[in-house]
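Subject — a protein and its fold

Tokens — whole-number codes for backbone shape
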Amino acid sequence: MEITRVLDNALRKAAAVWVAPDGHGPRLVWALWREGTVLVAVGGTEQEVPGLVDGARCVLTVRSPSTHSHLADVTTTARLAEVDEETAAALRSARLNTTPQWESVYRLEFA
């Protein structure tokens, strides 16, 4: 099975992934899979991810949504995203237990 299809299936169901920017350890972060990219909101009331800056190389670790076992480690590049209202609404609605207020949103683009 092609890895992009495997990742797509897993990330559609994932609520969290592990992100490790270069030079930093992995952090379990809430993430949203949208339009072929992983979105991570940081700052404000959201998580902090040291080293997550525009252009940072990151290792994204994805677990199987059914077994929770390790599925893949993928190299990504963080890109600061300008979030439109539709994407902001999707980010807010995915957070069921809080009203998120973030400082930045990054797209983790597959290398």
